[in-house]
Design goal:
The complex is a heterodimer of chains A (161) and B (203). By secondary structure, chain A is of the alpha/beta class. Helices cover 50% and strands 17% of the residues of chain A. Chain A is built from seven helices and six strands; from the N terminus they run H-E-H-E-H-E-H-H-E-H-E-H-E. In chain A, helix 7 links the parallel strand 5 and strand 6. The radius of gyration of chain A is 14 Å and the shape is globular. Chain A starts with a helix and ends in a 6-residue tail after the last strand. The chains are: A alpha/beta (161), B alpha/beta (203).
Chain lengths: 161, 203
């Protein structure tokens, strides 16, 4: 496991500079730190967060949208008909509830299909692991810039404390 | 007053303002009337024009950001009114053309005849809120809102178009719309009288 503070440091070091989203308990340390640094906008819905990030990207920022994978379902149309259509870059940090079928019942189906949903949307993604967080963030930074599209990092439980 | 009449009053008042347009006839009428590099036309993602505008406004407090929104769009993303009220972007002007119908899909009614969108905006924390239903009142209030401290919410009650408007779609590609809008944001320099510019030069 890596500390939330270390994750935030790597995130900021990778050049990301605008943070919004809807919380998940798996990233509570990350959101608390971003809030503390005054750089987190608490959105009301994940699709609205994608819209906010789109505006931030056009204003020259490198946005990150934090959400639970339940929120991935909420923002399908925003991703398809805004971010992907207009080629607006952002990093989606998506917590992976229902990972390996172990979770509360409301998370099981979305947990099972989250990677397939991203593949269907043609959003490049990686699964975060504690040992490779820095590499994944570098990959995300480079891919967001090169392809000018949303890129996702799926965060299973037990990676960030 | 129809949508085209209302836009005919507001658009000539615009100079360097960035304008995020809701999808449907709002984008198409405005594009038809006067295409500007400072215009972002949202052709999909219904409901999100206000969220996109907030994302611009928070990151460019030196620019005036306007939303051309519709009642159907606002009702689809009421949370955006709450977040704008909470974040208090002083440079945001939210203009809602309210014809009480979904105009692009055949004038099915929305619920804005029953629900006072201006009251929701006021309760959310917009510092200026007005409802207008004549071109003269629209001109007066829009002129004020474009220069006053916001966030401001202007509800423009309009009549629906009874017959389908024969009006073209946006001819730019979406990536071109985004790139042009981003360039209009980036390329602008404040006038010499602007305090933020003097601060930059003194550094």
């Amino acid at each position: 496991m890596i500390a939330g503070a270390e994750f935030c440091r790597l995130l900021v070091e990778s050049g990301f500079d605008f943070f919004t989203g809807v919380p998940c308990s798996l990233v509570k340390s990350v959101i608390a730190l971003l809030e503390e640094q005054g750089g987190y906008v608490p959105e009301t819905r994940e699709d609205a967060a994608v819209g906010l990030a789109a505006g931030a990207a056009m204003a020259g920022k490198r946005p990150v949208v934090i959400m639970q994978n339940s929120g991935l379902g909420v923002c399908l149309n925003a991703l398809a008909s805004l971010s992907l259509l207009y080629r607006l870059p952002c990093l989606l940090l998506i917590t992976w509830r229902g990972y390996q079928g172990k979770d509360a019942p409301e998370h099981l189906l979305m947990g099972e299909i989250s990677p397939a949903v991203l593949e269907t949307l043609r959003i490049p993604y990686q699964v975060l692991a504690a040992e490779t967080v820095a590499e994944s963030l570098r990959w995300a930074r480079d891919t967001v810039q090169q392809r000018s599209t949303p890129v996702a990092l799926l965060l299973p439980p037990g990676v960030i404390r | 007053m129809k949508l085209a009449d209302a836009l005919g009053v507001i658009v000539p008042l615009l100079h360097e303002e960035l304008v995020v347009h809701a999808n449907g006839f709002i984008s198409r009428e405005s594009f038809h009337l006067k295409d500007r590099p400072e215009n972002f036309y949202m052709i999909g993602s219904m409901g999100l024009a206000s969220s996109i505008a907030l994302g611009v406004a928070l990151n460019r407090p030196d620019r005036r950001v306007v939303v051309f929104d519709g009642d159907g769009n606002v009702l689809m993303n009421l949370g955006a009114l709450a977040l704008i009220g909470a974040m208090q972007p002083a440079n945001l002007v939210h203009i809602v053309f309210d014809n009480e119908v979904y105009g692009s899909t055949g004038n099915q009614r929305t619920i804005s005849a029953q629900v006072a969108l201006d009251a929701i905006a006021r309760a959310s924390g917009y510092v200026r809120v007005q409802r207008v239903d004549t071109p003269a009142a629209l001109r007066t209030v829009a002129q004020e809102f474009l220069v006053q401290r916001g966030p401001a919410f202007l509800l423009v009650k309009i009549e629906p178009d009874r017959e389908e408007r024969q009006i073209g779609r946006i001819t730019h590609d979406p990536p071109e719309i985004a790139a042009r809008f981003a360039a209009a944001i980036r390329g602008w320099r404040p006038a010499a009288s602007d305090p933020s510019d003097q601060e930059t030069r003194s550094r």
